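Risk mitigation, structural track. In case the binding assays with magnesium ion fail to produce interpretable data, a predicted complex structure has been prepared as a fallback.
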Amino acid sequence: MLIETSKKNAICFDNSYVLLGSRFYASVKPTPVERPCIVKLNYGLARDLGIDLEVIEPEALAEIFSGNQILPGSEPLAMVYAGHQFGQFVPQLGDGRAILLGEVIDNSSFRRDIQLKGAGLTPFSRQGDGRAALGPVLREYIISEAMHALGIPTTRSLGAVTTGEPVYREKVLPGAILTRVALGHVRAGTFQYFALQRDEKALTQLADYVIDRHYPVVKKVPNPYLKLLEEVMDRHARLVAQWMQVGFIHGVMNTDNMAISGETIDYGPCAFMDTFDQTKVFSSIDHMGRYAYGNQPPIVQWNLTRFAETILPLIDKIPDRAVDLAKEVIEVYPERFQDYWLSGMRRKLGLFTSESEDEALVQSLLDTMQENEADFTLTFRRLCDAALGPELEGSLRYLFKDARAYDKWALNWRVRMSHEVKTPDEHVELMRQANPAVIPRNHRVEQALEAAVEEGDYGPFEKLLEVLSSPYVEPVGHTEYMLPPKPEEHVLQTFCGT
Ligand code: AMP
Ligand code: MG
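Fallback model:
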């Protein structure tokens, strides 16, 4: 009886999306699983969400995070949306394997979605089985938590359970369910779904919903929907600039994978690059390189344009005027992105001030890295030490195939640094906060997943998570996590795992 009571209070749901009405979702319960078993819980995140995991019995935890048990206050639903997948419009997608359990208000008064990913069939499952495999679940867990620790807006991972059931992909794999937490799961594709039906009432309802939830400040201006577009544009310009600064490649930036909240969402075939390469693609399904590293900024603008099209009728009743107004906002994006990107890159180079030549300095480093196959993360991290003096750049030079190419660039960098009045220590301090020592390198992620999935050994997964939780600090005694893969450790491709 005691357990029952505590379970009741474990998650205090306060649901708002369900109030939009049944056009926006399908009510559907998770399909129970055979033998749920907790493999990971995020106690820190749970505390932030006001969820007290300690009061719940371990067996009850597995029942809750597998969806076998629905807690009071939860109103499970699958959200409907459309989307452009690799440029092709699909009129109806929707949560095919994710079920929103409900929302909670976190300790900072933000509303957060609690969703199970891999929770079984929904009306939107199409040909899919509604399930997820353990490898991709752990992959999303690692990478989303790493992104958060890097300071990049992202969905979070609250827990992972194995289901005790097989899932059938190219081979038979253990099934699992991820509990994903987001500021909101409304996507550009959600707007596209209602725009396709020319359902202006639903579009207005949805726009008002995201304004209330994510952009309340826009309510104060004369044209809140235009301002909404501008704010969404701004958040995504900033987000993609942050991705670029850590070498993150999302891999599947379809409009249904673009959250209006401005969080990174849907970790499928994403990856961090080791060797710097503007054209880098990891995803096995991205044959044309649409979502290659260097294509991410313009593709975000393309996605934003698709979003803008959906709210034109809300922006202005006169279609031509609506188009002109929206265009003005979308055209600001390249400049906005550039500003975020350049100010971040200045920090990475230890620069406190702005000079007109800075962009060329950054670009010439990137070009030199590309030509000389330098490791992205390690180059910038070692540059922090080099800021103390040329005598400390030995190990950095050898990241470049031709060390003299680095020397040539570094001369210009040192001249630029000399224009600043800061001490070397101040430059280093700035740089160490902008240049992570550890990122979820592919080979480490794969090693952790392989140990967990093949051998049930979660040691490497836990260790990796621990190191990634403080990415700007060099892991004492574990500097191997900073290193690029050895030739035999290279991961060439990633898979979305659906
Ligand atoms: P994604 O590529 O993960 O963004 O998924 C694209 C669409 O396919 C979304 O509507 C997903 O819900 C759906 N989907 C992905 N995997 C599955 C699956 N195993 N079962 C059902 N639907 C899925
Ligand atoms: Mg998706």
